[in-house]
Amino acid sequence: MSYEKGFNAEERVTSLFQPDTLLPAQYLETQRRKTHLEPEKLLMLAVLEDAIACFQKYMLSRDAKGRQMFRETEDWVLEEESEWLFSFDNICEVMGFNPQYIRRGLMRWKEAMVRRQPKAKVYQLTSGKRRRSSGVTERPRSADEALKAVGR
To answer: Could you tell me the pTM of the whole model?
Structure first.
């Protein structure tokens, strides 16, 4: 423990037993700030977690609702310079995250998933006899029979 120069031994000892003065308003202000901001931070973290989950879940969605969810989430993540309290940039900054870092990571993840996605749908062609789900074996239809079956 270092003491400032100029204090004699008696002054050093008596300074150890002097109370630290803190006004009640100062104490209450620090407690009030901690307790009132925590729920908002938890809500912001939940919004960010949900957005990342929606981004990852609906990125390859084939239905209209899923594609819309992804587009809305991607627009929210990519929007910069927003003054809205619950914007992506504001939430990241409040939580102590770098918004550009997270944004780049999500875009890299999206690119990797798109590259992995097959470009064409593969259909398996069967030759010979087919077995129905009921267990009955049927012979393949000719082109004429197939057209008759569909009413052409």
So the answer is: 0.54
